[in-house]
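Tip: read the tokens left to right.
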């Protein structure tokens, strides 16, 4: 890249200075006014400009609800709660009757509804999902030993078993007797769950 000749200069457009702030809108004040404040509640997007001292006085005396009745104030506060957007009771509104709310729209098959709150209206077969099976004391204890929760698949049980065997094997714990006892409980828990899952204990998990 060639060096720029010493007698060549770049010319830039001159920078326009920022306009000076207007004079303070407070009667009798000639100070500059860099601070703005709304003109009135009815003209909230229009501003007048004040100096620092007078904008503080103006803000302290500002009352957005001045001139409103109690009912108007209550309505305005409620509207602010929804960001001033329209609301309507559930089931009403501009889309009422135009949206499919039947079973085809809400497929909740498999949802356990022990108290019948849904009354089967959103299920494909019109019935609630069956409750989970009752686990025996041995099965509950086996789930606890392996650190699992029902429902599980047989593959998950096997994977968890292999992990625990590697972690608690006596050879990996300097021949610890405690590790040996834990391994016995792990083996027993694995046998119980493997047998249960292979003999009819239903699971919602996909293998």
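Filled-in amino acids:
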């Amino acid at each position: 890249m060639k060096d720029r000749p010493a007698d060549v200069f770049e010319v830039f457009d001159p920078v326009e200075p920022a306009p000076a702030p207007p004079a303070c809108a407070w009667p009798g004040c000639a100070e500059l006014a860099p601070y703005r404040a709304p003109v009135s509640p009815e003209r909230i997007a229009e501003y007048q400009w004040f100096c620092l001292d007078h904008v503080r006085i103006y803000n302290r005396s500002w009352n957005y609800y001045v001139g409103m009745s109690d009912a108007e104030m209550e309505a305005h506060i409620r509207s602010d709660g929804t960001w001033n957007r329209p609301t309507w009771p559930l089931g009403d509104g501009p889309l009422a009757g135009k949206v499919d709310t039947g079973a085809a729209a809400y497929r909740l098959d498999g949802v356990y509804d022990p108290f019948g709150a849904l009354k089967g209206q959103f299920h494909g077969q019109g019935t609630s999902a069956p409750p989970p099976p009752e686990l025996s004391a041995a099965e509950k204890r086996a789930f606890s030993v392996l650190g699992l929760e029902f429902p599980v698949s047989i593959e998950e049980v096997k994977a968890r078993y292999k992990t625990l065997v590697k972690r608690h094997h006596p050879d990996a714990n300097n021949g610890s007797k405690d590790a040996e006892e834990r391994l016995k409980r792990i083996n027993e828990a694995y046998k119980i769950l493997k047998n249960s899952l292979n003999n009819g204990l239903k699971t919602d998990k996909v293998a």
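The longest helix spans residues 177-198. The mean pLDDT is 78.
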